Amino acid sequence: MKARSLGLVLSLVLALIVSSVAQAQDIDTCFGLSEADCEVLTSASGQALMIAENFTMDYGLDVNITGIPDGDVIFSHSGVGPVALDPMADFPLSLNLMTQNSFDIAGDADEGPVPFAIYEGTLYMQIEDQWVGMNLIEMMEDPEFAAQFEGLTDPEAMAEELSGQMPEIDDATAEQLAGLLSIDGFLSQVRNGDTFEFTADIGALLSAPEFNEAITELAAVDESGMAMGMGMMLPMVLENGVIQVNQRVNESLGALDRFEVYVDATINGALLDPELEEPIVIDINFWVELSALNDSPVTFDVPAEVEMLDPEDANFDF
Predict the structure, then answer these.
(1) Radius of gyration of the chain (CA)
(2) Cβ(269)–Cβ(279) below 8 Å
(3) Which of 18, 33, 78, 119 has the fewest beta carbons under 10 Å from its own?
(4) Domain total in the chain
C-alpha cells in the first residue's frame, strides 16, 4: 500500500510538471537538442503510421524484478510479423505475429511460442494445439463493451477527468513546477547518429532542493496531506530511478522506425516493510522496430478448427 501511494504521488508530481509546461514560455522542451535536431525528431514523430499501409513489426518486452517477498519475477514477451492498417475496412487492423513468451514468477516457470493473428475482423490465437478465436467486429459493436472504452475515445473527457483528480494550483505554483524541468541532471536528450536518446533521472529530481520547495507548495493545496508526507519519503525510498527513451529516425522515410524504453529503479524495501532486507530492483525494457514499410501484406490461413469465444465474455472492466 505504501509503495502504491508513493508511486501515485510521484506520478502526480510528474503530471503536474508536464501540464505546467504549457503555462511556461521559457522551458526548453527539446531538452538540450539543437534546433535542427529537434526539428528532425519532431517532424518524424508519428509519421510511420501516416505513410505506411503495412509494415513488419518486431517487438519485445522484458521485465525483471528482484527483492520482493514472494520471489523474483522474470517475464519476457516478443513477437514479429506483418501488420496492416486500413481505416476504411470493417476492422482497421490486421496482423499475423509469431510471439514468444517465457516467465519465471516465484519459481513457477513456463515458455513457448504463441501464434497470434487478427484477420478480417477476427482474432485468432493458438494455445498449445488448440486455436481459439473471437469476432472483434461484433465485440466492438456491443454497447456494453463500447461503454468500457468510452473514456479512452474522448481525449477531452479524459483530460477533464485527469484535471479533476489534481489539486488546483495557482499560476505561481504552476511556474515553479514547470521550473523543475530545468533541474540539472533531471531531463536530457542527445543525438547519437540516427538515434535520439532521452533520459529522465528521477533521483536527480528528488534530491534537488527545488523538489522539496514544490512539494511544500503542493501541500498548501492538498488537504489530504499526502503530498507532504509522501514527498518527504520518496527521496529516501527511491534509491535510483532512470527512464530512458530512444527513438531512431529513418531520415530517408522521414519517420521513426525504432522506439525503445528502459526503466531502471531501485527501491529501499526496508522502508516499506522492515522484513525486506534486500533492495527491490526493477528493470524493464520495451522496444519495437518497424521495417519493410508498404511491403508487408498480411496473409493468414484460417485454421479448419477454431473454438470461437463469445464476445459477451470479453470484459476488460475499465
Answers:
(1) 23
(2) yes
(3) 18
(4) 1
Residue 312 lies in a domain: no
Q: What is the pLDDT of residue 9?
A: 42
For 16, the domain range is: 2-296
Residue 285's pLDDT is 96
Say how far apart CA 77 and CA 101 lie, in whole Å: 5
pLDDT digits (tens, 9 = 90+) for 256-290: 999 999 999 998 888 877 878 889 899 999 999 99
With beta carbons less than 8 A apart as the criterion, state whether 124 and 303 touch: yes
Confidence of residue 298 (pLDDT cuts 50, 70, 90): very high
Q: How far apart are CA 51 and CA 254, in angstroms?
A: 10
- Find cell 479512452 and name the residue: 152
If one counts every other C-beta atom within 10 angstroms of the C-beta of residue 41, the result is 17
Q: What is the pTM of this model?
A: 0.81
pLDDT tens-digit readout, 178-229:
777 788 999 999 999 999 999 999 999 988 988 888 777 777 766 666 666 6
195 inside domain: yes
Query: Quick check: is 308 in a domain?
Result: no
**Does 252 map to a domain?**
yes
Alpha helices by DSSP H, 120-208: 136-141, 143-148, 155-165, 171-179, 202-206
CA gap 191, 249 in Å, rounded? 10
Strands, sheet with 73-85, edge to edge from the N-terminal-most edge strand:
187-192, 195-201, 238-250, 255-267, 280-291, 54-66, 73-85, 93-105, 108-119, 122-127, 130-135, 307-308
What is the DSSP code (8-state) at residue 310? P
Q: Quickly count: other Cβ atoms within 10 Å of residue 191's Cβ.
A: 17
Side-chain-side CA neighbours of residue 238 (13 Å): 26
The residue type of 9 is V
Could you list the beta-strand ranges (E) of the chain: 54-66, 73-85, 93-105, 108-119, 122-127, 130-135, 187-192, 195-201, 238-250, 255-267, 280-291, 307-308
